[in-house]
Design a protein that fits this description.
Number of domains: 1
Number of helices: 5
CATH architecture: Beta Complex
Strand content: 25-35%
Bound molecules: zinc ion
Shape: globular
Distance between the termini: 36 Å
Order of helices and strands: EEEHHEEEEEEHEHEH
Structural class: alpha+beta
Helix content: 10-25%
Length: 193
């Protein structure tokens, strides 16, 4: 198990068991905009504006306290659902709105920093490196195996039905809280930061 907690400790959860996972950094502008939305760019983003993420199946995620503090936004009405905690604005993770795409990309800020590499191994891929900040871009690498594991994760969750155990969807397959869609002007301003 791997401990999850928001910065203030109100929201606590864990990643249970073993399974397929990915340890990646995403340099896309959307992930960066989310950090700026929360005002946590400094603590969340690396020197080139990347967000370090652990992808696991949502069924492995279990909250022990503070679920009522969860909130979510989307940058567009079709975009990823981006979760954070209202108590202290800790970015938590990103999911697709389709519950059958059963993974969550957990953002390192809510993870147990000292044990990330021990529990999930080192970073194996860097995505969207063309959108990284700075002149010398990080090398894009490791994409294919990550995508294979990602598909494996989603497929396994779909076939086994374990996607229905996600704590982020209710029994009717609706998100447990409605995700607020940001307006285009707000998103444009966040992306300009
Ligand atoms: Zn908190
Ligand atoms: Zn991204």
């Amino acid at each position: 198990m791997h401990a999850i907690r928001c910065q203030c400790g109100t929201v606590r959860a864990q990643i249970n068991g073993k399974g397929i996972h990915n340890h990646i950094v995403c340099y896309c502008r959307d992930c960066r905009a989310f950090a700026h939305f929360l005002g946590t760019g400094e603590g969340t983003l690396d020197a080139q504006g990347g967000t370090e993420v652990i992808q696991v199946s949502q069924a492995r995620l279990q909250f022990s306290q503070g679920v009522e503090q969860l909130a979510a936004i989307r940058l567009t009405d079709k975009g990823m659902v981006r979760w954070y905690t209202t108590c202290c604005k800790t970015p938590l993770g990103n999911i697709m709105s389709d519950p059958k795409m059963a993974f969550i990309g957990l953002i390192h800020t809510a993870l147990d920093r000292d044990n990330i590499d021990k529990d999930f191994g080192p970073i194996t891929a860097r995505f969207e490196t063309a959108a990284a900040l700075g002149v010398a871009k990080p090398a894009q690498h490791g994409i294919f195996p990550v995508i294979c594991r990602f598909i494996g994760m989603s497929l396994a969750a779909r076939l086994s039905g374990s996607y229905k155990q996600s704590p982020l969807f209710d029994v009717k397959a609706q998100l447990i809280v409605q995700a607020r869609v940001l307006d285009a002007a707000t998103v444009a301003a966040l992306k300009a930061e």
